[in-house]
Design a protein that fits this description.
By secondary structure, this protein is α/β, with parallel strands linked by helices. The chain is built from 9 helices and 14 strands. The strands form 4 sheets. The protein has a 6-stranded parallel beta sheet with strand order 3-2-1-4-5-6, sandwiched between helices. Strand 1, helix 1 and strand 2 form a beta-alpha-beta unit. Helix 1 packs across helix 8 and helix 4 packs across helix 9. The radius of gyration is 21 Å and the shape is globular. The termini are far apart. 46% of the residues are buried. InterPro entries: L-lactate/malate_DH, L-lactate_DH, L-lactate_DH_AS, Lactate/malate_DH_C, Lactate/malate_DH_N, Lactate_DH/Glyco_Ohase_4_C, NAD(P)-bd_dom_sf.
């Protein structure tokens, strides 16, 4: 990633949700120096105020202002990050969270869109792919301006695992996770490289054994990392906060960086679904200019991942339709 530009007076970032991810993101953003105005919005305003008071004691060292705000403060924001939602519990999949967190999005997203019609929405709340799709529908924004953090975190974890195995810095491992930010995510082995060489070729050149089982274990640890962290400490926050700042950097600096983020589109024959593929990020949003050259096995795995997300989106829509029909059926007629 390119270095961040110095804070600009016009750069405002709003974070909706003052929980552990939201506050850690605010702190990471503060240390990065990317924005000069960081606004926290939370239903528990008193808690948000306490977090802002604490953050402000660091803010004076970094020439930025951190404050509690309301949705009116989204106006002219470069980006609005949504981290609000129920936390994932031990043993709970991301897709189990959808009904509860959708109800929150139905309140939050239209208010953001009303006050900041030109902003970019960055979704971090899980299940992030389903909620990125929901935010796209609820906001009425172009799909380029509704971005989910998606597998940016998984890609970072994947490169960490591969770097540790091969004994190289993760920054020098070029490998991505695509598809769902969750159980059906797909490691793209066919395109993974180190030093410009495919992994099998790198192993040959470096006199390292190429072991499919060891590499699959790297992918498994990547997929299960969040579950392991949540089992041990009850939440994840540091990694995702750093990734969210990494997503913001090319948006604020208009630097055309490529990252695996979630965006609504058509994937492997599945229409109107959000999942992660490499996208070019800039001040206009996220763009998928060049498709990945996946092999046949990976294309099928991507289709299954897309379909699993689509199934949840469809189930959610069916649930909402049924709830609306029930509400209309039980609505009392007005008295004459």
């Amino acid at each position: 990633m390119p270095d961040s530009k110095p804070p600009n007076k016009a750069i405002k970032v709003v974070i909706v949700g003052a929980g552990s991810v939201g506050v850690t993101t605010a702190y990471a953003l503060l240390l990065d120096g990317l924005a000069s105005d960081i606004v926290l919005i939370d239903i528990d305003r008193n808690r948000a105020l306490g977090e802002v008071m604490d953050l402000s004691h660091a803010a004076h060292l970094h020439k930025a202002r951190v404050r509690v705000g309301d949705y009116e403060d989204c106006e002219n924001a470069a980006a609005v990050i949504i981290t609000a939602g129920v936390n994932q519990k031990p043993g709970q999949t991301r897709l189990d969270l959808v009904k509860t967190n959708y109800a929150l999005f139905r309140d939050v997203v239209p208010r953001v869109a009303h006050h900041a019609p030109d902003t970019i929405i960055v979704v971090a709340t899980n299940p992030v792919d389903v909620l990125t799709h929901a935010a796209y529908k609820l906001s009425g924004f172009p799909r380029e301006r509704v971005i989910g953090s998606g597998t940016a975190m998984d890609t970072t974890r994947f490169r960490h695992e591969l770097g540790k195995h091969f004994g190289v810095n993760p920054r020098n491992v070029h490998a991505v996770i695509v598809g769902e930010h969750g159980d059906s995510q797909l490691p793209v082995w066919s395109l993974a490289t180190i030093s410009g060489m495919r992994l099998r070729d790198y192993c040959t050149a470096a006199n390292i054994e190429y072991d499919d089982k060891v590499l699959e274990a790297c992918a498994t640890r990547t997929r299960e990392a969040a579950y392991e962290i949540i089992r041990r400490k009850g939440k994840t926050n540091y990694g995702v906060a750093s990734v969210l700042v990494s997503v913001l950097q090319p948006i604020v600096t208009d630097s055309d960086a490529i990252m695996t983020v979630s965006r609504v589109g058509s994937y492997a024959g599945v229409d109107d679904v959000a999942l992660s593929m490499p996208c070019k990020l800039n001040r206009h949003g996220a763009y998928q200019d060049v498709p990945l050259l996946l092999n046949d096995e990976e294309k099928e795995a991507l289709r299954k991942s897309a379909q699993s997300i689509k199934d949840v989106i469809t189930s959610l829509e069916d649930h909402l339709d049924a709830a609306q029909e029930t509400a209309e059926a039980t609505k009392k007629p007005e008295q004459p």
